[in-house]
Amino acid sequence: MTIDGQKVDFAPGETIYEVARRLDRDVPTLCYDPRLEPFGACRLCVVEIEGQARPVASCTTKATAGMVVRTVTDALEAHRRTLLELVISENRDSGDAFGAGTPAHVDPLRGASSQELSTLAARYRVRPGRHAGAHSGHSRRDDDNPFILRDYDLCISCYRCVRVCDEREGDHAIHVGGRGFESRILTEFEGHLADSSCTFCGQCVQTCPTGALADKKALRAVDLPGELTKTRTICPYCGVGCSVDIVTKGDRMVAVQPAFDGPANEGALCVKGQFAWDHVQHDERLRTPLVRGADGVQRPATWDEALDRAADGFRRAAAEHGAKAVYAIASGRAPHESAYTIQKFIRAGFGTNYIDNCSRA
Ligand code: SF4
Ligand code: SF4
Ligand code: FES
């Protein structure tokens, strides 16, 4: 086939969009998530095929031999701009949030994909307010779960959240109800997420391209000073080894986002990896070693004193009862370096394999 004048081979079953991506063609998408079945809802990915009267959605159209495709023409770009203007016209605060050609105000703390619509709106210099009329989306700010903000006034009905919950999480916790401007994302009986089968994995939040679903814990950091930085690491909670990005603002950890290119998780996380990180900066976290005095009361000590005391205790236990008297269980809340060190301590220090990690559970 030929894409934008370039001849290219394709594998059976590949879509035009997938081939175009391989060629680094920048075809815009909104309802597309490479981990999900193509949906064909937003039509932003339209391309022209020679011999066909109308543009087709490249994400749902299979490549065929001899096909001649154009991904960028003036007509396609105008079409995409109009589609975006229709989408944002029924989006709350679209005028403010997606000011024509200006960077968006959707806070990137909302989720990993939350900037997709606003970035496209800026790229296509959309004219907010060009289309007036009814608005869909019914915010569920009354949902008092601690993790997920359901701000559906920003929803564009791409259904990525519903599809990721079905296809990737297998949870089917959320669904689409209603038609047209009455379409809405809901749980069974239109209740709250905590009363549904939701496991709070956060996958819906991280795929949402508008920030309509948002990470409540991350949003606590909206007013913190400092730049957002992402640091790639591996979740220590279990043996799956999910890749995550730790999001920091200034010197504070403010969120965890899944790595979509993580080989073990491909963007998925469980509730622990996604939301259970408060212990890192918890006020009650020990900052000074404590040793117990003869009176049995713990008091602050220096690291040297505490380490000497611990070493004495371990030596005494091993001398009196043998090396197998010592058994260590490393915490899944500790960094990998600590897990490595504690197994080294047991294996090299005591010559046993009496070591485990709670993340094996
Ligand atoms: S958090 Fe996970 S389980 Fe809950 S609705 Fe979202 S995708 Fe489904
Ligand atoms: S909540 Fe987000 S992901 Fe779900 S349909 Fe709306 S815009 Fe799409
Ligand atoms: S990305 Fe192809 S129709 Fe939405």
Structural notes for this entry:
This protein has 361 residues and is α+β, with helices and mostly antiparallel strands. Among the domains are: 114 residues, Ubiquitin-like (UB roll) (Roll); 57 residues, no CATH class. The chain contains ten helices and 16 strands. The longest helix has 19 residues. It is elongated and about 85 Å long. The site of one iron/sulfur cluster has 13 residues, from helix 5 and helix 6.
Average residue pLDDT: 92
CATH class of the domain at 2-105 and 114-123, anyone?
Alpha Beta
| Main sheet makeup | 5 strands, mixed
User: How widely separated are the two ends?
Assistant: 51 Å
Q: Count the DSSP helices.
A: 10
Q: Tally of extended strands?
A: 16
Q: From the alpha-carbon coordinates, what is the Rg to the nearest angstrom? A: 26 Å
Low-confidence stretches: 99-104
The CATH architecture of the domain at 2-105 and 114-123: Roll
Ions, cofactors and other ligands present here are: iron/sulfur cluster, FE2/S2 (inorganic) cluster
SSE class: alpha+beta
Strand order of the largest sheet: 2-1-5-3-4
CATH topology of the domain at 2-105 and 114-123: Ubiquitin-like (UB roll)
- Note the overall shape: elongated
Percentage of β-strand residues: 15-25%
Helix percent reads 25-40%
SSE succession:
EEHEEEHHHEHEEHEHEEEHEEHEHE
Short description:
The chain is α+β, with helices and mostly antiparallel strands.
Topology:
Elements: E1 2-3, E2 6-7, H1 16-22, E3 46-49, E4 56-57, E5 68-70, H2 74-89, H3 94-97, H4 116-123, E6 148-150, H5 160-167, E7 175-177, E8 184-186, H6 203-207, E9 213-215, H7 216-219, E10 228-234, E11 243-249, E12 252-258, H8 271-275, E13 290-292, E14 298-300, H9 303-321, E15 328-330, H10 336-350, E16 355-357
Parallel strand pairs: 1-5, 15-16
Antiparallel strand pairs: 1-2, 3-4, 3-5, 6-9, 7-8, 10-11, 11-12, 13-14
The structure holds iron/sulfur cluster (2 copies) and FE2/S2 (inorganic) cluster.
